[in-house]
Amino acid sequence: MQVEKFSYDNLVVKQFAIATLFWGVIGMLVGLTIALQLYIPELNFGIPYLTFGRLRPLHTNAVIFAFVGNMIFAGIYYSVQRVCKTRMISDFLSKFHFWGWQFIIVAAAITLPLGFTTSKEYAELEWPIDIMIAVVWLAFGYNLIATIVKRREKHMYVALWFYIATFVTITVLHVVNSLEIPAGILKSYPIFAGVQDALVQWWYAHNAVAFFLTTPFLGLMYYFLPKAANRPVYSYRLSILHFWALIFLYIWAGPHHLLYTALPDWAQSLGTVFSIMLIAPSWGGMLNGLLTLRGAWDRVRDNPILKFMVVAVTAYGMSTFEGPMLSLKSVNAITHYTDWTIGHAHLGALGWNGLLTFGILYWLIPVMWKTELYSKKLANVHFWISTLGIVFYSIPLYWAGLTQSLMWKQFTELGVLQYPNFLETVLQIIPMYILRSVGGFLFIAGIFLCVYNLVKTAKKGSFEKNEEAEAAPLIKEADKLKRGMIHRWLEKRPIKFALLATVVILIGGLVELIPTYLVKSNIPTIESVKPYTPLELHGRDIYIREGCNTCHSQMVRPFRSETERYGEYSKAGEFVYDHPFLWGSKRTGPDLHRQGGKYSNVWHYLHFEDPRQMSPGSIMPPYPWLLTNSLDTSSTSAKINAMRTIGVPYGEEYENFANKDLMNQANAIADDLLNNGIPADPDKDVIALIAYLQRLGTDIKGNKK
Amino acid sequence: MDILTHKQTAISDEKNEIGKSCYHCGDYCQDDSIKLDEKIFCCNGCKTVYEILSANKLFEYYSLEKNPGIKKNEKIKRNYEFLEDLELKNRLIDFTDGTITSITLNIPEMHCSSCIWILENLYRLNNGIINSRVNFLQKTLNIYFNETSTSIKEIFELLASIGYEPALNLGQKEEQFSKLSYKTLYFKIGIAGFCFGNVMLLSFPEYLSIGTNELPEMKKIFAYINILLAVPVFFYSASDYFSSAWKGLKKKIINIDVPIALGILVLFLRSLAEIIFSIGPGYIDSLTGLVFFLLIGRLFQNKTYDTLNFERNYKSYFPISITIKEGNSEKTIPVEKISVGNRIVIRNDEIIPADSILIKGRANIDYSFVTGESIPVEKKNGDVIYAGGKQIGEAVEVETIKDVSQSYLTQLWNDEAFQKTEESRIVSLANSISKYFTIIILSIAGAGAAFWFSIDSHIAFNVFTAVLIVACPCALALSTPFTLGNTLRIFGKNKFYLKNTHVIEKLAAITAIVFDKTGTITENSLSEVNFDNAFLNDEEKILLKSAVRNSSHPLSKSIYRSLLEFSIHKTNSFEETPGKGIFASINNFTIKIGNNNFVNEKLIIDDEGNTKVYISINNDPKGYLLISNKYRTGLKQIIEKLKRVYQLALLSGDSEGEKQKLRNIFGDESNLYFKQSPHDKLNFIKTLQVKGKRVLMLGDGLNDAGALKQSDVGISISDNVNNFSPACDGILDSKMFHRLNDFISFAIKSKKIIITSFIISFIYNIFGIIYAVTGTLTPIVAAILMPLSSISVVLFTSFSTNFVAKKEKLL
Amino acid sequence: MSVIFVLIGASLAIAVGFLIAYIWAVKSGQYDDKYTPSIRILFDNQKKQNETESKSDLNNKQGAA
Fold first, then answer.
1. What's the fold here for domain A534-704?
2. B137 closest CB neighbour out of C35, C51, C54
3. How confident is the model at residue B336 (pLDDT cuts 50, 70, 90)?
4. CA-CA distance, B730 to A656, in Å (whole number)?
5. What is the per-residue DSSP string for B221-260?
6. What is the pLDDT of residues A79-94, one digit of tens each?
7. CATH for B528-628 (3.40.50.720, 3.40.1110.10, 1.10.10.10, 3.30.450.20)
8. Averaged confidence pLDDT in chain B
9. Fewer CB within 10 Å, N- or C-terminus of chain A?
């Protein structure tokens, strides 16, 4: 028996690494743009595709799925081959994965500014792209799992477990959160509504953070940190424990994103409990990473790669401590809907994901190009300005979040709100926004240095597409023996067999139960709550298209400060026809759930034309195109049909009359505008949007009267 | 990293001292005469390994760690012919399909990442090796190789040639068994833990009684999922308790597992009934939690046992194979195949496998294994050599007079008198409590049910089951293993290693203590060296020290230790004649150290009792050193203390030479017995036991094996922890001898802690039963009470043992 | 709140999947050795030919890393 000779596929690693940097630059530039727009609203140049509402999802998607995503794949393709001592099982799938993923990113970069969005955070892409994601993701998964199966090293290094967890969990998350009914080629409605949709979304979003931004990066940390430091991980035993504890706890922590919402109390408490429990494994992992460098701190001092990694791991520890703290109800009451959350997310993304990415790339590129890093000094500079950037980014946002939250909750001695005008609280934090964009700028400046340094490094070295390697084969006889054992294990012990059977039945049973309960759940619990009229439905879709939910929440929490400011707190039953839910996660502008009837149609019309006409100093951009765009009434029947399929009780054949109702309502609003001196065509987008806004939160008010 | 850096620090220390270090092993190089590729080596052995590695381009070995190599002893060239023996081969092989074969070897020498690297790259050195994998912590190497192109023998030779000689012993295989049972326990815990976690999660709405009004159907679904999760816990994780209870019942014994099994059973059935008939949420969380905690307790217990379980198979002491001589040819056979009349070859450091007669060569037998006596015994042709002795010096030929299985050592082990009944009083206490406990609980449950039956038959059923649920003696079951496990651990930290937890309980109950003399109350390693009869100036003492430094002989070590304040000269040449002495030339002097015969070529019979070591320098006699026994430090004080509480006795195999000294310590002459044979010692202990005494025997070595085994607690005192007798119940490091009294009193206190924790768990039970019989036991109370009682008992026992240990200064 | 069932179902399915993976891992001896794998990943098994470069190269590489 001879040693087996083979080669590692370095090309795919190179491609993903380049894509990481390319999309990193793009994604962060978009981020800087929208950060600037928060105090210079004109920065969209009057172009609808460049407004904050449309660019923010582009920014998050680009950073998460393009920048971090490509890094994950580069790291996985590099480390899996080496840890398994084998080439990826299929070069075609690697290529397909790479180009497929880039295609998806390009598709996102085109559709999101065009306004094709589901409005669900980190899952904004519309259904055809969702399907593409599923296909490419499964190709990646097959490539990964099959490679692991045919590995030449019996032991599966802990990083592999993190990768597998990433693949399996993200698959399930993506499928569940993308259950939607198409209502057009780039339009769909999620099958869940309101509270349910919110729960699914945040279960998804939380776990996406867990299993896309955390577990794969932990896998990378467990591979690249020991490699860069050239010493084994502090405790391998602890890393195994870290993995299993994280896996079994993470999945339950999702509901903490919905504290004080219409979600049932117990589900909220559950989320909090499990979030707190998560500190233990997370910190175990962080300490394991840091202690790996125990006794080698002198090396950290003059090695920029280790510096990046150390600060990244520290940032992981900080965010995983901050996260559970934010899930405490009393803390959450203050920080939720404010910029604190944005600061928290960026500490994780810039610190943990960003810095670890840079650390890995600074190690990986010289190794793959068989040379030394072009400039250690430049890398050090990069390290310092990006660390500084993170500090400049987070601290102003924490400050802004705290300031705004305190102002929202401030009452005068007479018991009325001290700052009843939301705009006052916005103007107060503009200086923080300016500082934050400086932080962002520094970070981007750093990434340019990184690109320069790495390009120079690559030019200096020589890249080999296929890296020759050899390894002893894994003995097949052992496999046979093992398989025989599992079989015997099952045969000989009926109890264990029964156990497995139970598990299968459990899953099967749940799958069967689901549809029954789904239908039941769409029965309204508040009688006065009625489905949206066709015009309102169109208005709602425009609201989604423009990304209004990125700045406005629709969820009045049961605090006096909020009921005083916005009105009656939101009830779960009010959202039963909300496909999707639009609760939002950030209040850059005021909450809109009780907006209906608060202002006149004219006010809204003029406000859209230029917000500063109505609210001087507002940072909302003007939406003049709403006044000129014609409403696409041809899609009405498709929308009504789709809504009916997922349980919204529109009458039989209502789709045929829907446009008639729509025109009647539109004409009424146009007449009202005309009566107030503003001539407007009833078939414009703005009419539908006004109709939707005037409807918001009125069902329950009507009931009271 | 500790393991990895350890050797390196040691090396660098040495390097600072000397300067030039071997490229391969890092040892000091006397000069740079052994050179290759501009690298210097300390010896040709190291150079050879370097040559092998460099010829195969395995340079990475040296780049991973500095000087990673193992110093190679050139002189020992082992013959691995015996590995051709089919039966022996089969014992080594894990798996084979005729061509591809897997073996697992023990490589004691591996110590750093370079070792891992080279051992996993063996395939580059031998084409027949397909794959090799290291388990660093266990120091094992698993090799897959192709039988058609290489053999076990070749692999051994390869490993030996690069300095990683595999260690072989027969005991190896059996260790793997215990690992398997661990795996099962891990599965059981994993499943119980997983189910417990998820059940808790699904029970949250119930605990907080929220959300259920709006969604009654959800409550129901959750309860059903809980049942599904409880099924594997009940049928799989808890299965041991059922089988143990069943086994007990079959033998008509109500052991501690009976009430536990009953509790689990009732918990499960009642929960099932409640959920199916929509009466309530059931007690699934308590059930899964209970099983989870019980299993954790069991794991803790097993782990503690495992780390302390030193009673290895006696086979581990014997060489796995032996060279026999047939005519003029030598061949190797497995040790069991030796029969009476075989002529066998025993080399330096090999153990004599069976009683034999010396035929050829100068035998110098170290019986420290058997007797604890460190002075090797010289044997002449025709002398009988007993099994278990170790030859020191040149190879000798012996003829066996007994089979291995009949020999002295195995006889000692197999003596029926040494088979102790493993019944422990505390365990039996727990069991006898549980017997009454079960009966009482059943009566309370029955009475409660009978009372309620007249009022409300539904409540009657509830009361009956509720009593059984809360009365489940999990705290009772946990307190013993946790307390004793922790006590064992604390003892272990103080270098007092007990065979198992039963010994603690027995130790707490002893009433008499019997000491052996040699090696027990005397300290082999601290023998007093008397220079009165040696006429040495300081310079000569330096020579003496320099000479004995080269020898590993116990007497040399004693002398060396007595001369610590002197410096050392470099030795020019050195020769050790086993059984006689040392010849060394240092500077311009030659020095001879050894017995009178060797040094002065005279035969003088030594005085009784003490050992003399003669010295001559440049053939000029310098007299002798008198090496006498020294009693262990603190002996007098510890005897003082023990005398007050226990009946003491001293049994010595020697003559009465030290009687006077010993009387000063023991006070009473009537307790001192001399010239005792092993059999006398055994009988002495039997007599004490007949008189109703519970005896603690402190002895040393296999010679006392009978007495150690006969005694209620047999402790062997050891200067070297690895050197022990399988007959004993524990090993006490000689350095800790003076703490003996503390150990005994700590054992007594542990027993009290157990009894206290029994009381605590009874209090919980009484509270629980009050709730239960009044029909007011709610699931939430059960869910709180049951884990609370278990956890608080575990915490109590752990904290109090630690607290007591701190007070006794054992921690 | 029926969506809870979907989520619990999905979460539980994942969890059970990992439980099975855990059992497999323990059973197949993945965790018999909880130390050596951490060292093993530090070795890069390159093809023999590459190592004709002298060992001082390797030493340099080591130093650089």
1. Cytochrome Bc1 Complex; Chain D, domain 2 (1.10.760)
2. C35
3. low
4. 92
5. HHHHHHHHHHHHIIIIITHHHHHHHHHHHHTT---THHHH
6. 999 999 999 999 999 9
7. 3.40.1110.10
8. 74
9. C
Rounded Cα distance between B156 and A112, Å, is 67
What burial letters (b/e) apply to A141-170, b meaning 16+ CB within 10 Å?
Answer: bebbbebbeebbbbbbbbbbbbbbbbbbbb
Least confident of A551-560, A639-648, B521-530: B521-530
Q: Which residue of A has its CA nearest to C23?
A: A486
Structure-token pair, residue A383: 């390290």
Alpha carbon B500 to its chain centroid, in Å, reads 11
Give the residue-averaged pLDDT of A277-305.
86
Q: Do A270 and B211 touch (CB under 8 A)?
A: no
Of B124, B137, B183, the CB nearest to C33: B137
Q: Where does CATH 2.70.150.10 sit in chain B? A: 319-403
**Pair of tokens at residue A184:** 């057009």
Asked if A506 and B225 come within 8 Å (Cβ–Cβ), the reply is: yes
Give the predicted TM-score (pTM) of the model.
Answer: 0.72
Q: What are the sequence ranges of the domains in chain A?
A: 4-464, 476-521, 534-704
What is the C-alpha separation between A12 and A22, in angstroms, rounded?
15
Q: Decide yes or no: CATH 2.40.50.140 for domain B319-403.
A: no
CA C31 – CA B173 distance, rounded (Å)? 19
Fold of the domain built from segment(s) A4-464: Cytochrome C Oxidase; Chain A (1.20.210)
pLDDT score of B524: 61
Torsion of CA B427, B433, B435, B441, to 10 degrees: -140
pLDDT value at residue B597 = 74
A489 at the B interface (CB within 8 A)?
A: no
Q: What is the pLDDT of residue B782?
A: 65
Put simply, whether C52 touches A (Cβ < 8 Å) is no
pLDDT the model gives residue B6: 40
Q: How much is the pLDDT for A253?
A: 58
Contact A475 B131 (CB under 8 A): yes
Q: Specify the domain boundaries for CATH 3.40.50.1000 within chain B.
A: 496-523+632-747
Smallest Cα distance from C64 to chain B, Å: 12
B-chain CB neighbours of A299 within 8 Å are none
| Contacting partners of chain C (3+ CB pairs under 8 A) | A, B
- B63 shares contact with chain C (CB less than 8 Å): yes
Among C17, C35, C41, select the one facing A157 at the smallest CB separation. C41
Chain B hits for A513, Cβ within 8 Å: 221
Q: Which tokens hold the place of B558?
A: 């004693």
Residues in CB range of B296: below 8 A, 6 or more apart: B189
C63 touches chain B (CB under 8 A): no
User: Residue A31: which of A346, A359, A347 has the closest Cα?
Assistant: A346
**Which range among A693-697, B176-180, B394-398 has the greatest average pLDDT?**
A693-697
Instruction: Name the most confidently modeled range: A86-90, B181-185, B304-308, B702-706.
Output: A86-90
Q: Do A223 and C41 touch (CB under 8 A)?
A: yes
Lowest-confidence range among A327-336, A616-625, B8-17, B263-272? B8-17
Q: Tell me: domain B496-523+632-747, CATH 3.40.50.1000, correct?
A: yes
Any chains having at least 3 CB pairs less than 8 A from chain A are B, C
Across the interface, whether the CB atoms of C16 and A507 are under 8 A apart is answered: yes
The model's confidence at residue B181, banded by pLDDT at 50, 70 and 90, is low
